[in-house]
């Protein structure tokens, strides 16, 4: 591919950008740096022991001896402690974030802001990192929140560093696991900063999914399985879909510990006519790939399928590693989404106390960043351990953590009612309305504990918000908080896994389902001017149960009482049924009950505020108004909803009352476009009126004329390049420069935002989606790659007044390129002194949050509301890491991110290379002249 040698300088704005404010962006958040707590020399001979690390399942009777010294350990995580003052401050801060009227209400932090206020000092992190390196361990990751460091190494290196032994143990599952046989220790100088160590064992949490064992149907009602539209009907989600509340612009993290096959998720979505929407797959950097785990694959598939079945247009991010909780840790630290869903757990009695404390520290950080964390309450009823070692009452962690929302289980009880149609819809659904529910408990029928988990925590105290009718008058945290149908037997959820259709239940399914519901809530709140994310949802749920109980379906029938069968030779096992009965109000079998989703979403902030009917404005454009029978006409219908709810569905195009075809809407943040390619031969000769039609909106029309010849010229593409770096690097939302000949008949420069999708008969599309135009001329076009563009091979098409040509190219998640002047120095500050804060500009940042519509600039100047890259950037100057003070897309910029950074104090004077790295991808080198 040939790309012309001439570079476009930022100061030669041949309309590369619409407007690039070159002023320094003023930050409104300030905090003082933490003081170093490591004040002594690190002496390995003087140690302090860290307690709470012995795993209850690593019993002496099952010890199989020392592990091999060369055994590799991945992502062993050293958790850093907070000072007492920090812990108190954090508890108060997250409470203020949930208190309407507080200046901090829904004021969410970034991980860097969390680090400055609640993390360890940079100096302490550096000292611990240096010590770990000196023990032969390789640092795999350092938390953005400065609250943990992950390392890789051999068993011998880990044993030596933490003065413990790793042994093999035969687990209750019949598999061999490793764990530390003694409590670990660290040098005394680090004892006040290192709180705990994760990764010294591989007793993983268990999935809370249940395959169907025995269908329990009343023969008079037939056999029923749950398709996405069934749940939408039963729990009153459908009216939100009708109004355009479908998860557009929202993100959900599903945490897992296996690879997945996208074909299963794609089959599920196509089978039930859900829009194509592959999840983003993210393996934790620095961790080993777990491959496909047959025992974990059904869990991952159902989580991905059912979160997306509810939040149908949301971005689902699947974060995976060898350990699902490491996946959670990474998702929170990277602030990947305002919702994290985990369908794994284990009983508190069989979880090291150090682990439970670590879970709570993550949850608090996540809440402070606006993250809502959902976890399954477990499938073993009131006896969550589900084994003869601990057959009595117990609850499931991490759901027992107060900062996590625990999701329990119900099942449907039709009785003599008529709740199902005799035939399915085209989407495979037959539910007619809400179906009464009881507590899920199929233990008797299944012959094994099979009921929703619940009870009182023995670790965590009752939070201040857990009050209301039915809440026990004690000082324990109680679970679950909320519940939805979880029975695999009556009625199970349809799941594609391993290439086949299967039926599943368990609290694993309502957990991602409720995560999807919360994505709808977040979308609606953002459309009403609220913040992105709700943080700890629990305080709102318990408050709403008292002020607006009609939101909830109170479950008053049934129980989660189960019996763990004991061996005849185990006299310590009571072999007695344990659990809880449903009652009026809150109970430890079903929590607050299930929800009417429409009411939850629209009445979340108090008085009822019905979802506005989607009535977006409709505009129809074409790339040409006169064409020949052999030309191609692009019809582009743009729908904009002032409420911020993104229009969905399709637009129908007609000519003189006859349908030409329809096209699917694609977009985000309240704006969507539908594009239809029409050949001139499909249009009647002469002039005709083409109309775009969308339900609920006023039709938009334009006139075209089919003549015997065309004014267009066939364009030729010589090459494509990143609009800043001019490298072969492209990402969604970035700028692409198209070089060639006869690309346009005239020169046009965009004068305002949003950018136009056509200019003097020229249109550019990427995979059939309009690419807004900054600039178009005969030899060059600068366009924005649509945010909707999928990673992988893509096709760019240029249409010059009916004449069309295409070029293939590759799109990656990020492709950072730095804007420079003619001498390869960054702009607008080609020189700076050490310690000075300066701005620069890049394109190719990839996906951003909150989402922006393609071609649009942010409409706010509020720092916390500006779009930031999902893949956080790093900047180096002369090879030394620079502190980033701000990174985001500011008012007036389209596809361009502003980065404010401080020139490192240790960099040498003179011309130094500057590199931006995002998502593991480095930019081409730019230069900065460093003065004194």
Written overview of the protein:
The two termini are 43 Å apart. The model is unreliable at 1-32 and 216-222 (pLDDT under 50). The chain folds into 4 domains: 47-198, no CATH class; 211-410 and 440-602, Rossmann fold (3-Layer(aba) Sandwich); 617-707, Immunoglobulin-like, CATH 2.60.40; 817-930, Immunoglobulin-like (Sandwich), CATH 2.60.40. It has 932 residues and is an alpha+beta fold. It contains 14 helices and 57 strands.
Domains, number: 4
- Specify the biggest β-sheet: 9 strands, mixed
Indicate the multimeric state.
Answer: single chain
Shape by Cα distribution: globular
Q: Assign the CATH topology of the largest domain.
A: Rossmann fold
Low-confidence runs: 1-32, 216-222
| Average pLDDT taken over every residue | 89
CATH class of the largest domain: Alpha Beta
- Number of contiguous helices: 14
Radius of gyration, CA atoms, in whole angstroms: 29 Å
Assess the beta-strand content as a share of residues.
25-35%
CATH superfamily of the largest domain: Peptidase S8/S53 domain
Distance between the termini: 43 Å
CATH architecture of the largest domain: 3-Layer(aba) Sandwich
- Strand tally, please? 57
Structural class: alpha+beta
Q: What fraction, in percent, of the residue positions are helical?
A: 10-25%
